[in-house]
């Protein structure tokens, strides 16, 4: 594919967030902006399989649009603009292709999160409130329309209550029951989660992905793309790790215990 594929997706039912994805065939940049164009979360990678997966998805979506909006294209409004060889790139798009600047912005965003976490651990109320604000604004904006379970905080009054897209909602409801998960900005199974989203056990995410694929409709595909390609690109597996519980006065371990240690893995893109 020639040129530079670029996509921008607004949050599902209100323009609070914008997802921007750009690649030049080597770099892949994924950024989440607020409605005020404030960078909230990002990922900058040079991992070839990630780049290829994005290009495959991009081609698939373009084919769906060309043939009348099949697949999940019908679940949202799609605007396509193809620039000619002699047509100048709009100023707002030109900034997207400055990869050094995008990478610097992404690294600074992660540094801000680390500083806030350090402040939170020191008991600074301002840092605590800012972390909660960032987490809440992202989570609230990612509730899929027509569902009661597909978001951070479900809207269902009872367990049996489902939204209009009931098959998709059942998939989300089952995933919500996953017992093994690491909340945002928390440590569990020996792993700290610095993201504003929960990280789940890979087995739970795999079942969730399969359920959405079986549903196979527009809402399910939209939820799948939002979850696996944006919110939860990582999952974790558990492996046994031998840790020392007690040492002698000269430093030799005299009591051991085997504990489960979480290790991050890449989720399969949707």
From TrEMBL:
GO terms for molecular function: metal ion binding; phospholipase A2 activity. Its EC number is 3.1.1.4. Residues 144-238 form the Phospholipase A2-like central domain. PROSITE patterns: PA2_HIS (PS00118). One of its GO terms (cellular component) is extracellular region. Keywords: Calcium, Disulfide bond, Hydrolase, Lipid degradation, Lipid metabolism, Metal-binding, Secreted. The keyword Disulfide bond applies. InterPro entries: PLA2-like_dom, PLA2_histidine, PLipase_A2_dom_sf. Pfam families: Phospholip_A2_2. This is Phospholipase A2. It comes from Frankliniella occidentalis. The gene is LOC113210539.
